[in-house]
Specification:
globular, single chain, about 200 residues, two-stranded antiparallel ribbon, Rhomboid-like fold
Amino acid sequence: MNLTACLIAINVLGFVLQQALGPTVSGWFALWPMDSGLFQPWQLFSYAFLHGGVTHLAFNMFGLWMFGNELERIWGPRRLAAFYGSSVLTAALAQLVVTGAIGSTVPTIGASGGLFGLLIGFAMVFPNRTITPLLPPIPMPAWLFVMLYGLIELTLGVTDSASGIAHFAHLGGLLGGWLVMRYWRGQAPFFRLRR
């Protein structure tokens, strides 16, 4: 079983536990805002294995399978784990900054931040690969798809549209994935020392 399949299995298991144990799982493992009194350090990663319903889980797992498999084939499981984990972490940090700024006490769950990292990783590795989104079903190169999706997320986050969705966690995942790719490539803002 490859890492992508393992991540999907852990997410499904997390969802089953949520259904079986109810709010206890979210109380311990969702990403709670710092001022809520419920924040714990492990939540910076554990929130990414919980979901708010079957549809939320299904869409995230479809994206994880679609983009994670491709990247794992190129990078291998260790590099994918580092990349995905970094995206999940930066998504969590971005969400904590935003929830702190607006005084929210609502927890965050879902693998979307990590998935957005995978999206930008995919677009940077395969920039001209054609992606056809569900809505609108217009084929476009991966780099354009990710750019448009990022702009939509930024617009929805700034205008507070589609509330109940952690748009800034998505953007944090994009940023984290982009930074890791730039680091691996020795590009600004990171530079490798030349010998």
